[in-house]
Amino acid sequence: MAQRAVEVYVNPFLDEQVRYDSSMVLIDEALELYPENLNALGHRLMLFQQKRDINEVLSIADQMIAVSPESPLLLGQKAFMLELNGDLRESRNYYDQAFRLYEKYLKEGGFNFNLTVEYADLLKTSGDSVKARKTLEAIDTTKIEDIQKDLLRYLRQRPDYRERMRKFWDGEIEFDQIEMD
User: Fold this and answer.
1) How far apart are the first and last CA of the chain?
2) If we measure between CA atoms, which residue out of 93, 165, 106, 172 comes closest to residue 139?
3) What is the distance between the alpha carbons of residues 57 and 85, in angstroms, rounded to a whole number?
């Protein structure tokens, strides 16, 4: 059901409002069957984010964190949403929790490309672009696959997500313009 909700949402042949409404109905049905489905919750969060409903976004973020409290990615996403909402003290608490977990996991588990990239991305999102750049530069490119090298090149040149999200929440750009070059 959750997969179908995503398929409907990305269907270019449907009207935008029909895609949104149909996807919301399907995702709600999926969550009735399995309320802890992180993929479904993530899609629902994105739908409310698109409508700039920060209260619902934060509520769904809390649900996701309740399912996976040791996920630095989820903690970091909530931190950024809190920051966008102006709650800087609470945002900093969530960022700090996420950073501690990333650093713990990276220390305990050795090199993990995906985790390192997530960590660097959150550093940049939190405003620490210097440490983010250093984290990405520290990756030994002789030990990663070509597709990972391509991802590193993209991350170094992609548009500033933090600034684009601010512009979206301020109504300066539309949701589909966030990731555009």
Assistant:
1) 32
2) 106
3) 11
The four Cα atoms 130, 134, 136, 139 give a dihedral, to 10 degrees, of: 180
| Helix, strand, coil percentages, rounded to 5, for the chain | 75, 0, 25
Q: How many CA atoms lie within 13 A of 148 on its CB side?
A: 15
Nearest to 50, CA basis, from 171, 181, 180: 171
Type of residue found at 3: Q
Q: pTM for the complete prediction?
A: 0.88
Q: What is the pLDDT tens value at each position of the chain, 181 positions in all? A: 778 888 888 888 888 889 888 899 999 999 999 999 999 999 999 999 999 999 999 999 999 999 999 999 999 999 999 999 999 999 999 999 999 999 999 999 878 899 999 999 999 999 998 999 899 888 877 788 889 988 888 887 777 778 888 888 888 988 878 775 4
The residue written with tokens 């500033």 in the block is 160
